[in-house]
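U., I forgot to send this yesterday:
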Amino acid sequence: MTTTTNRIAFQGEPGAYSHEACRKARPGMEALPCRTFEDVIEAVRSHQADLAMLPVENSTYGRVADIHHLLPESGLHIIDEAFVRVHISLLAVPGTSLTQVREAMSHTVLLGQCRSFLRRHNIRAVTGADTAGSAKEVASRGDPSVAALAAPLAAEIYGLDRLADQIEDRQNNTTRFLIMSRQPDYSRRSDRMLTSFVFRVRNIPAALYKAMGGFATNGVNMTKLESYMVDGVFTATQFYADVEGHPEDPALQMALEELGYFTSSLDMLGVYPADPLREAQRQGDRGA
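Result:
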């Protein structure tokens, strides 16, 4: 009999954006905070949690470092994706007014997203360990001159006041998360499915060009293709790809079959529905 924990693991302190992603995508599950991405994966592998919530890329800052190395080696399978808008709030101890704040603490990345607001209010940026960790520290200090930049959820968890909301410079800033499980789910759960896989090309001339040809000729849209070194060796390159469609779709089936001729390895990472925000962004790009 398979036991379930009804937990979803994430990296960071409670109140982090990964925690917010857990609440958005799996509101009925208990969110389990972990110290590192490796700890998140191990929590699922060791049955401490049923699912893992892992950030893979941000619309402003690109891919999350090292995450693509971890996915193929994790032994887990992608079963869903979640897009989360990065809305930033200025959080302070209860009773604080905006004019009292002299410093704002957060992760370096978040500090860079609120430059206009901080400059306008003459608030100095201070680097903290992470977003939710900064909120936790501000709560423990009890100093009204020091605030935190974090998700609104962190205010709820650490008992802080939200002095200002949605202060980010770019309102379309979005982080993409992948939800991973011990067991794959290849069922067709939406009319817009995505397939993710990793592969290595054979050592022949123009192998990558030839490998990609099948997707073009079969009309399969590749939404992501990234390369990275394996084991620190320049000649050992692995590619991570996201494509639109289900492996049973005739077009994708033929494209993957053609890909197989030019690869030395091909491993499926997951088949899952596209987040609705993905299509909304696509429509926005078309209308721009």
